[in-house]
Predict the structure.
Amino acid sequence: MRFIIPEEISDISKKLKKAGFKVYLVGGCVRDLLTNVVPPLRGEPRPDGREPKDWDIATDAKPDEVQKIFPDSVYENEFGTVLVKLKPLTGADLPAKVSEGNSGGQAQKNADTFPRQSASSPRQSALNVVEITTFRSEGKYTDKRHPDEVRFAETIEEDLSRRDFTINAIALNIGGVAQKLVDPFNGQEDLKKGIVRAVGNAEERFNEDALRLIRAVRFASELGFSAGGGPVSGWQIEFNTRRAIEKFAGLLEAIAKERIRDEFTKIIMSDGAAGGIILLEELDLLRYVLPELREGIGVGQNKHHIYTVFEHNVKSLDYSAKKNYSLEVRLASLLHDLGKPKAKRGEGPDCTFYGHEVVGAKMAVRALERLRFSKDVIEKVVHLVRYHMFYYNVGEVSEAGVRRFIARVGPETVPDLLKLREADRIGSGVPKAVPYKMRHLLFMIEKVKNDPVSPKMLKVKGDDVMKILGIEPGPRVGYILSALLEEVLDDPSKNDSPHLERRVRELGKLSDSELNGISKKAKEKKDEFQAGIEEEMKKKYYVR
């Protein structure tokens, strides 16, 4: 068996070997190479092959010796990791990430100094930097994340013994003509069997680095594993590893939210995202990641739903993952009914959840902020959650109603909102993601897509209003633009400069209070999408 290694990695290994040092590929790249060639024992076909994302090298050369061989490198950390620069960096380069399987990681300033980009193919890579780490062993982990002391080791076996899971504790000797795997913990066998197993004593591994608790679930999600095994999945987290995760779940509280967010994001973006959420709950980790989601466990719905709130949210996420939707749509699919437990009124088949989208949007803000998601991601997800209950029925909603819908949610949000609606439907147990009503809505959106739906699309701008009326910037300008947009939403043909300029002069004769009243009336106007919501919800929830 011979693995294809990127040319840059081969060149580095040859230089280290020529200088008399041992050279191994380690961590996730070896695991991913093996998933493409190791046949599963049970005979099930593997999913699409996994191309290594990062190439990490372990060597017996000390950091100063590595730097002598590679002058264009940097070493500014306590973990024995030298970053070797391969080509000039640009602003488009992706940020570095901590090597998989490394418990301590590297200094953030190194990541900032030398971003690295994953190889797009083993044959033609886009690598910018490579991490070369001296064999090492580690002392205690007082902070449950980083070793108090790092000691250089003599052998690759000793280095592998400090890693998290057996599937990440395999090394590939690439320093000579022949390639040889070093696998002291039978990681290849676990890959064949589909097992996530801690290296050595599971309790010690999680007590050292609590982030490994959620990393176990992440690997399970990414590689297609699931806890407990069974006739459907055929995979499992090894018994002692699972028990140790359950025992030390509370240690996640000691981990920075940003690190939890990163692992959680990888779970959400994996093909096994739904199974990952279930696994987090089974292992008692979800309460430390997304406790709001747990409020839906066991909360029954009504005749429209066959699943509990929690099950529905997870199944909606599953659909989004299978459709390979974006992070924002996947998060919105998981969180869209977050507010149902708090909004629930009554029990049994006639219970209601009026206003749950508003409650859920507020809960989603708090949850995503706590996990330190970016402002942009939070805004997009919360917007989707807030407006996922839009109503549309063929023959009841005019083109003006469709334009108001687009104006309210934003043209850029409409595609994702429709994807969320698909996920919501499938998560409810219905057979069709896109029924006739949805297809008709898509037709209507396409029909009016070029019509003006925002003040920016008006033929008269704020500067024009100030010039025509001879006024300074202020609320009056906004009031007038709001009134103009309301007219144009009803009739796009009125988006004509002469007509709008004439209307500006007419509106300019009104007082501030009168203009404010018109503006408020426009904002409060119940468009045709919303007009049918209450009646539709009564039908939906079997309420008379």
